[in-house]
Amino acid sequence: MPMRVVRAAAYLILSIWAILTIIPFYWMIVTAFKSQVAIQAIPPDWWPSPPTLLNFQVFFGSAPAFRWLFNSSFVAIVTTVATVTFATMSGYAFAKRRFPGDRLLFWLVMAVLVVPYEVKLVPLFELSARLGMLDAYSGLILPAISAPFAIFLMKQFMTTLPSEIFDAARVDGAGEWTLFTRVVAPLATPGITVVTIFTFVDSWNAFLWPVIVTSSIEMRTLPPGPAVLQLQSYTDYGLQMAGSLFTAVPTIVLFLALQRYFLQGITVGAVKG
Description:
Elements: H1 3-32, H2 36-39, H3 54-62, H4 65-96, H5 102-111, H6 117-130, H7 137-141, H8 148-159, H9 163-171, H10 176-187, H11 189-204, H12 208-213, H13 237-257, H14 259-267
Helix pairs in contact: 1-13, 3-13, 4-8, 4-11, 8-11, 9-10, 11-14
């Protein structure tokens, strides 16, 4: 089979897959600008006619949307900064330092990745309750800053860096803190960028844990926030989609601005230099 035909078939399959992937997102946008009558129309309309901002008016008028936006932003930023800092330090220690039990400790950290997240919810909730972190920013942030996957990514990336650079810095009299801040961190910028993006998006989109650890409407974050507006008699899909679109916009902007780093995250640490 000619290579040109194979390439054309691959592009066709990928195009169909991309369209199927985009359809739910497109439907969310369209539904957010539809009236309740248009949403329930059969057959459904693929374009709001006429478009309406009523769903957004109801959403911002009946929910503390900007408080949820602040909560999500604050939690995501603090979680990202703390996670990236600890993951970079841990990755450097596991990749370039040798100490008793380093391999065992690393594999214990990696073993946490095998444990389903749902299994950890009960002990995390009990620990948060005993430490007084329920319905507080500490309860939303602290359980998330220990990220084994981020440590794994940074360790793999640090492994690709030549050890001779660090040895030369030590010969020049650099201490561990100077070595980390002036040599390790600048060289690890690509890995740090990837971990930052992944951590921020994961923290921003967190749904289950904020629902469990928060009880007041004011402490909710954006992803679970619109669920508070759910009516008992029926589901207001327009209202739900307006809230979901408002939640998704920051991550969409982040992806469009830093999409090349998302692709970089697929291969980070995969090839040794």
